[in-house]
Amino acid sequence: MAKIIFALLVGILLLVQSSGMALATAVSITGKAKVLNTDNSYLDFTSYNSSVTVDDATGNFSGYAFLEDVGWADFGESDNPSGPVDLDLSTGAVSGKAYVANTGAYLDFTNYNSSVALSLGSNNFSGYVFSEDVGWIDFTDTGVATATSLPDWFSLDNPGHESYTNSERPTFKWKGATDNSSLSKYSLEADNGDTNDFSIDNIPVSGTIENVQDRYLIHYDGFSDSDNTNDYISVYTKSSSVWNSDSNDGKLKEGKRSWTIKAHDSSGSVRSKTRTLFVDRTGPSMEITKINNSALADNLATLDTTPTIFGKLTDSLSGDKTENKVASGPKSVEVRVEKRNFLGLYDLQSLTTVNFTETYWSSTGVKITDNTQNISDKYSTFSFTPAEGLSLGTYRVTVIGKDNVNNASSATSFNLRITTLAEIPAEEKEIIEELEKEPETVVEVPIEEPQAGQNFLISIANTLGNIYWSVVSAARGTVGYIASFWQGYSNFVYDINQKSLAFIGGLFEISGRAVANSYDALAQKAPGAVSRAMLAVRYALQRSANTIAYLFRSATSAVANATSPAVTTLGNFAFRQKVKLLSIAEILFDKNPTVITGVKVAEVGKGYAVITWETNHYTKNNKVNYGESLSYGQDVLSQERARHHELRISDLKPNTEYFFEVMSQNKNYVYDAFHAFTTLEE
């Protein structure tokens, strides 16, 4: 009978081995862990006939170790009410409690911030465990280890832990176990949050050809050779009606997700490894903030051949729940510059990628140092300047941003004109259009003796000649010279006691045309951009002459002397032309921004105050915002173009503090705030 039983046992053993099933191995624990409070006693796993082992399939401890201060500690279940101590075969963490028989206390591997762990793939423990009898015990100090290394059965390869992807069907890849003889299968589990989890079971542990199923594809690398250290398995899910209705067709949802690979052995034991994955499928948003110092506007004109484009790319959090939302963060912007040709089509001039090196939290503006965090939206700012100057013409600029997983923003496009005065932007055109209007007041002057007209024409000719030779000596700032013409004429009508003016209107128009033509000839000989700018100004010069001529051709009554209202009106009109033309010159040729200086409370009374300030350009929309708090609430406005500004505030309360700011507009809108004054007492 005994022989029969023995034969049966042998047969069973042979059957197990032939079926590829492996028996778990108990791996011995050796070495000593020092008790820190005594500094000369140990938890001894080697001496005293200690017998602690760990099951390399389940991670369960068993047996006893001797703690020199209090006696035997049971790591298993024999005499341990809370046993066994457990080794997590995925992470190497040790948890559970070992029971001290003599005291009824525990070595607690779970609580008290205990931190004992085994480095998987090696045989060394590290960290501390808390003994309720003797305090902290150090597993690192003298070395506690497994007698042989526990096999790290497999390791996850891709996607990386806490990495970002924009794929809802990423390839899940892991390195196969070095020895897979004890394994029966792998399985894949994807955690999609509250709903729509999916899984794939019965993944063969090895193969040499692709395994194609309805729901997935399995690819094997390295299994065809004798080297079992380079064996990799990859799984890719496919769209299929075979998926369960709640499996999201085998796709990951956007947000914070996790994936787990489990290795199953023949005894039913499972070792699993999990990684977190951030799925970001939403593109960032692009904002162009300004070009040089000007706010973005389509068809914006500039004289700068290397304009700088400023912008901001924001990657917003996306996901199905607040705690799951993710943003991979801005990566780069692509700037495409195209020039319009004579057919109205656009030819590529340059294609440039600007990569971001710094990213910030939208909620705080603080620089991001750990991009695996998803506290709020993330943004980066950029600037782009063409490497080479752009020639004159119309350009289409297109900017597209990308985040770190290459989701793209919508394209932001705008037209930009590299121009001279010949192509004046809308705001500047408004100024010139005012020059073309008929005068508001017609000066009526009777025709008198030709001699008076001749004397006047000589004076005008001298003025025009001076302007012309000024242009010859300095070809830049041409608009300013037309303004000088108007200044000269303004001075002329104030200073000369001229009896008769009207009949020379036609002569003046001819004279103006002659100067314009001479100016045109000069411009033809000027180099490059200077020539184009001068030719553009010729139009304004001729219009100036025509406007003066119109005044005189319309004259029917006498101008008695230089102080008459009619002469004064002519002088004021001429001054206004000077201001308008200088405004054009500042907008087109002065690259400096408009700035405010010298803000003063020039005068204050019981119910009023006079505020003055200066600007470096002629500005309009000059305004004072004021009130009894910094929210202001009231204002006074002047539309007169000037560099010195003086506005009076009325109807104020006596003995009251008022706050104010001043504002002016030329090529840009500027302000100077946080000023105050107190009105006088009654």
In short:
21% of the residues lie in helices and 35% in strands. The chain has 682 residues and is an alpha+beta fold. Helix 3 packs parallel to helix 5 (505-525) and helix 4 runs parallel beside helix 6 (528-553).
What layout of secondary structure does this protein have?
Layout: H1 2-18, E1 26-35, E2 42-44, E3 53-55, E4 61-62, E5 64-67, E6 71-74, E7 86-87, E8 94-95, E9 97-100, E10 106-108, E11 117-118, E12 125-126, E13 128-131, E14 135-138, E15 144-146, E16 155-158, E17 163-165, E18 172-175, E19 183-191, E20 198-203, E21 211-212, E22 216-221, E23 232-237, E24 255-265, E25 270-279, E26 285-291, E27 294-295, E28 300-302, E29 309-315, E30 330-340, E31 346-355, E32 360-361, E33 378-384, E34 393-403, E35 412-418, H2 426-436, H3 450-473, H4 478-495, H5 505-525, H6 528-553, H7 565-589, E36 596-604, E37 609-627, E38 634-638, E39 642-649, E40 657-665, E41 669-678
Parallel strand pairs: 17-25, 28-35
Antiparallel strand pairs: 1-2, 1-3, 1-14, 1-15, 2-5, 3-4, 5-6, 6-9, 7-8, 9-10, 10-13, 11-12, 13-14, 16-18, 18-23, 19-20, 19-24, 21-22, 22-23, 24-25, 26-27, 26-29, 29-33, 30-31, 30-34, 32-33, 34-35, 36-37, 37-38, 37-39, 37-40, 40-41
Helix pairs in contact: 2-7, 3-4, 3-5, 4-6, 4-7, 5-6
